[in-house]
Amino acid sequence: MEGQGAKLVRHYRDLAFMGFWEVLFNLPTILKNIRFCKKDIREYQPDVLILIDYPGFNLRIAQFAHQIGLKVFYYISPQLWAWKESRVHQIKKVVDKMFVILPFEKEFYDRYQFKVDFVGHPLLDEVGDELEEKTSENGQRVIALLPGSRDQEIKHILPVMVATAKSLPEYRFVVAGVSSVNAEAYACCGPVDNVSILFDQSYSILRSADAALVASGTATLETALFGVPEVVCYRSSYLSYLIAKQLIKTRYISLVNLVMDRLVVKELIQSACNQTNMKTELVSLLNDQEARTRLKQDYMELRAKLGGKGASQKTAGLILKYLEE
């Protein structure tokens, strides 16, 4: 957004806390930033407030903006269909227009008589037209490791991924690092002969990957759009996992399976997210050509379900249209 001319007053990475215990621990910082945001909105006096994802923070700001008479538009819906479904009633009160990027989200809101616009998924523009079968590099197959973009994710998932890599010395593993994360989070990667790290180059890594181990999140969808067979991994603190297990209502955790409404990619969750299972599923993905072909067909169906390109452009056009009305 800054690259497109927006003035950045806070970066979202300073607010991105994952897990229930982690959020509680960082609550003073979160509350401080909420106060800052409200003050900044009052001083700036915008014509419309456009919120993007990040529900824990943004829904509080939406309520504030509604109270002071601002129009509130929301791009990329909170995942109400996964947990805290009751928040839909709050959204109906304080959000004027909602723009959703997943096809089943429109159906979800329809059940509550709240009209939303499905605009397609913005990743279709970022990724482009991939879905090509990868070729091995110098005879050695490449496995992408995407352990997430937050310290907490990386802490719990990356060591297991690296242990899996050590048990498969015939393959080359490349970690998709994030430069904004503390470098110590990647300490477990070295020195390991068949493991390397590239920072802020996840798309480049996926373009050359034969398979991938991917932390649950948007990266699972990105990996699928690149046509890379993947195993989805989720592991968090035990307390956070227990709370999430009680609250989350969906059958799947990966966006690929959620959009397809069936098990397309394997999910390894918490205790199942271990070296033995990662190795077994990864080797199967690499060597079962029939399964790879079937997965590629599923990925093509997934792309079709996500709508056409130009999601953000469509959203911008709709915002202008609604403001004129």
Structural summary, described in words:
Strands 7-6-5-8-9-10 form a six-stranded parallel β-sheet, sandwiched between helices. It has a four-stranded parallel β-sheet with strand order 1-2-3-4, with helices on both faces. It starts with 19 loop residues before the first helix and ends with a helix. The longest helix is centred in the N-terminal third of the chain and has 18 residues, at 27-44. The chain has 14 helices and ten strands. It has 325 residues and is an alpha/beta fold. The protein folds into two domains: 2-120 and 310-324, no CATH class; 127-305, Glycogen Phosphorylase B (Rossmann fold).
CATH homologous superfamily title of the largest domain: Glycogen Phosphorylase B
Gyration radius, to the nearest Å? 21 Å
CATH hierarchy: architecture of the largest domain: 3-Layer(aba) Sandwich
Number of distinct beta strands = 10
Shape: globular
Biggest sheet details? 6 strands, parallel
Number of helices: 14
CATH class of the largest domain: Alpha Beta
Strand order of the largest sheet: 7-6-5-8-9-10
In short:
The chain is α/β, with parallel strands linked by helices. Helices cover 46% and strands 14% of the residues. The chain is globular.
List the keywords.
single chain, 325 residues, alpha/beta, Rossmann fold, 2 domains, six-stranded parallel β-sheet, four-stranded parallel β-sheet, 14 helices, 10 strands, globular
Walk me through the topology:
Layout lengths: L19 H6 L1 H18 L3 E5 L2 H13 L3 E5 L11 H8 L2 E4 L2 H8 L6 E2 L4 H5 L14 E5 L4 H16 L5 E6 L17 E5 L2 H7 L2 E5 L2 H8 L4 E5 L3 H10 L7 H6 L5 E4 L5 H13 L1 H17 L5 H14 L1
Parallel strand pairs: 1-2, 2-3, 3-4, 5-6, 5-8, 6-7, 8-9, 9-10
Helix pairs in contact: 2-3, 3-4, 7-12
